[in-house]
Amino acid sequence: MRRSIAVTLLPVLLALPSRASTQESRPEGAAATEHPVQVALFFPVQAFPETDAIRGIRISFIYGKNIDVTGFDWGLVSHTTRSFLGVQIGGVGIAEGSFTGVQANAVVNFVRGSFVGLQSGAVNSVETGEGVQFSGVSVPRQFRGLQI
Q1: DSSP 8-state code for residue 48
Q2: Is 1 helix (H, G, I), strand (E, B) or coil?
């Protein structure tokens, strides 16, 4: 049931305003700039710096890193340092902050903060989470939902 709720709510989640665009979520003294598209070969060789937020599509051919991503994220290694909202597909997904949505990376899904949604990969790791996890190895510190 939670999986169907997460899938049903995904279009609604993608329509929410980006956390990077709200004044209260910005670090003290920092003005996060949003971009609709990010293309990264490997960090720091990417179209926009890591301190910028992406609201749209991020493509990381080898390794991409940004503060916030809202939308679709595809790459070999995708890394956010504050928050992610949307769908992430690739090899390795790293979220140092919160993650809401679908994280479907072939090798590792790692969320240091809170996770809500669906995770699918060989290894899934979350600090705290709620939703569905499909994996060979699941390493949650605290998780509510379905784990297979």
Answers
A1: S
A2: coil
The Cα–Cα gap between 63 and 118 comes to 22
HEC string of 66-89? EEEEEEEEEEEEEEEEEEEEEEEE
Cα(43)–Cα(29) distance, integer angstroms: 24
pTM flag (> 0.85): no
- Cα separation, 35 vs 71, in Å, equals 11
Sign of the CA dihedral 53, 112, 93, 140? negative
Q: Each residue of 52-90: pLDDT tens digit?
A: 999 999 999 999 999 999 999 999 999 999 999 999 999
* Whole-angstrom distance, CA of residue 114 vs CA of residue 126: 7
Task: Please say whether the beta carbons of 62 and 77 come within 8 A.
Answer: yes
Question: How does strand 45-46 pair with strand 34-42?
Answer: antiparallel
